[in-house]
Amino acid sequence: MSDLALPSALAATAPQADRIGRGEAIAAWLLTAPAIIAFVLMLLVPTLAVVAIAFTDYELGATSLRFIGLANFAELMEDRGFVTSFRNTAFFVAVTTPASVIGGLALALAIEGGRRGRTFFRAVFFLPVVSLMVAMATAFQYMFHPTIGPVNALLRSIGVAGPNWLGSSDSVMWTLSIIGVWEQVGFNMVLFLAGLTAIPRDLYAAAEVDGVRSGWSRFWTVTWPLLGPTTLFVLTITMIRSLRVFDIVATLTQGGPNKASEVLLYTMYTEGFTFFRMGYSAAITVVFLAVVVVLMLLQTRLIDRRVHYG
Q1: Which region holds residue 59: left if phi is over 0, alpha if psi is between -120 and 50, else beta?
Q2: What's the rounded Cα separation, in Å, for the pair 101 and 235?
Q3: Does the pLDDT of residue 53 top 80, yes or no?
Q4: Sign of the CA dihedral 260, 239, 241, 127?
Q5: What burial class does residue 267 get, using C-beta atoms within 10 Å of its C-beta: 0-12 exposed, 13-18 middle, 19+ buried?
Q6: Domains of the chain (ranges plus CATH)?
């Protein structure tokens, strides 16, 4: 092809390239359209609706509503029940998050370092994740029963008087936190196992050549730094799952005794579907969403830059 014919050939193929590009763009939008529509209809629109309702006095079943501004949020600040549920939620998160993360990491290290029964122990410790808390409620009520429960029976055998685990204001949140750890530690274990298998084995060999020989030294030198991104993800997921605690409260204590175990989502549920105060319930939901967003921003801003290497 001559030098004169080359520009004309390129000019002829330019419209064809543009048509191909437009076709690919249209195909991409068509393929992503179902996901976009589902996101808008099932997540974005309901969230915006909840935020809007939070500024009204809407009650479930009412035919009209009235804009009341920040009145619901002002009432929240003076509501002792809301303050109690917020404090109980914070306590639950503060106990279950570190215990679940550390427990999941310890189980993952133990299973990864073992030579036999890896599949069996993975299934055993992951079982709480796939178990329905509603179905397990009867088992926990029996285990923590103050008179016939095996937990107090074991304590009595060593001369210790066990408390009324689920019926005392002093112990109910500790008991729910123990159940929360049981529920989450298996999930965290699986995530840490995935992070451990992604660490190249030759790094351990190189560390051993450099004099790092003990298991504790290998953990701090190789394993823990390279588990940084996994740990951040596990920490974020665990905190969000702990903030969303509802099922164990609804099935075991219903917020009692005397609201000693009431948490944010259970308060939101009772205000909306027991007392039909949807506007007030929506205000609690907005506070809950704000707490989740703030925690995620703090984690990603303060921790993310310390655990990713590049």
Answers
A1: beta
A2: 7
A3: yes
A4: negative
A5: buried
A6: 75-306 (1.10.3720.10)
Residue-wise over 135-172: b if at least 16 C-beta within 10 A, else e? ebbeebeebbbeeebebbeeeeeeeeebbbbbbeeebb
DSSP codes joined into one string, 135-188 = HHHHHHHHHT-TTT-HHHHHHHHTT-----TTT-TTTHHHHHHHHHHHHHHHHH
15: cis peptide before it, omega within 30°? no
pLDDT, one tens digit per residue, over 111-157 is 887 777 777 777 888 888 888 887 888 889 999 999 999 999 999 99
pLDDT digits (tens, 9 = 90+) for 69-114: 999 999 999 999 999 999 999 999 999 999 999 999 999 998 887 7
The dihedral over CA atoms of 248, 251, 255, 258, expressed in degrees to the nearest 10, equals -120
Bridge partner residues of 242 (DSSP) = none
Task: Output DSSP code: residue 42.
Answer: I
Location of structure tokens 């500790």: 174
What pLDDT sits at residue 39? 93
pTM: 0.86
CA atoms within 13 A on the CB side of 132: 4
First-to-last C-alpha distance (Å) of the chain? 47
Mean pLDDT of the chain: 87
How much is the average pLDDT of 252-278?
Answer: 93
- Strand-pair partners of 67: 56
